[in-house]
User: Fold this.
Amino acid sequence: MINWRSRLTGIASGDQAIFVTRKAFWSVGGFPDLPLMEDIALSRKLKRLCRPLCIAAPAVTSGRRWDHHGLWRTIVLMWRLRLAYYLGAEPARRALAYARIMPSPAQSSAGP
Assistant:
């Protein structure tokens, strides 16, 4: 589902393992100084240079948050955060909402 969305939009997120040449990375200014959605912002800038190539080989990334919080809850939150990003919501507020709603599994299992 996520790969289909990325192939359709040309926008990838960090957990999809974005590979980029150094020249292209620096030509768009590198990672933007954002507390959240920096991968989306970078992907949008890179898309202006050229359409991304999606490879078929799988990338192994951590699924802890997805496992801990569940598929649908995580998908709904990510889409809400993306919508807020596209509508211009303040980055610090988005990051705070993400941390509050989706604490890392280590944070949520830590004692008082």
User: Anything to note?
Assistant: DSSP finds seven helices and no strands in the chain. The CA atoms of residues 81 and 97 lie 9 Å apart. The radius of gyration is 15 Å. The mean pLDDT is 80.
